[in-house]
Amino acid sequence: ARTKVDLIEIVNQGEEKLYKIDKNLKVAIMGCPVNGPGEAREADIGIACGHGEGLIFRKGEIIKKVPEDKLLTELLSEIEKIG
User: Fold this and answer.
1) pTM (2 decimals)?
2) Which of these, 5, 8, 14, 79, has the minimum number of CB atoms within 10 Å of its CB?
3) Any idea what the Cα angle at residue 30 is, between residues 67 and 28, rounded to 5°?
4) For every residue of 22-80, which 3-state class applies, written as one string?
């Protein structure tokens, strides 16, 4: 109920973009900014979506908040930083 973004579209686009990345990472795309990072704490990196924006998190810790239209770009940017 807290998700106010097109989560299905973000997941579909995310899968398409992540498929091309050759890294052994667990990525989570969650629908709730409140519970998302905690529920996906085992993920290496991910997105927790909210109302027109989302949180980028790493290992369950929030690292930044970004607008919805920048979520995947920022996620991919953070993934590039991971060795």
Assistant:
1) 0.87
2) 8
3) 105
4) CCCCCEEEECCCCCHHHHCCCCCEEEEECCCEEEEEECCEEEEEEEHHHHHHHHHHHHH
What are the two backbone dihedrals, phi and then psi, of residue 26, each rounded to the nearest 5 degrees?
A: -100, 120
Over the stretch 44-76, which tens digit does the pLDDT of each residue have? 999 999 888 899 999 989 999 999 999 999 999
Round to whole Å and give the CA distance between 38 and 55.
12
How many angstroms separate the CA atoms of 78 and 44, rounded? Answer: 11
**What is d(CA 63, CA 71) in angstroms, rounded to the nearest whole number?**
13
**One-letter amino acid of 80:** E
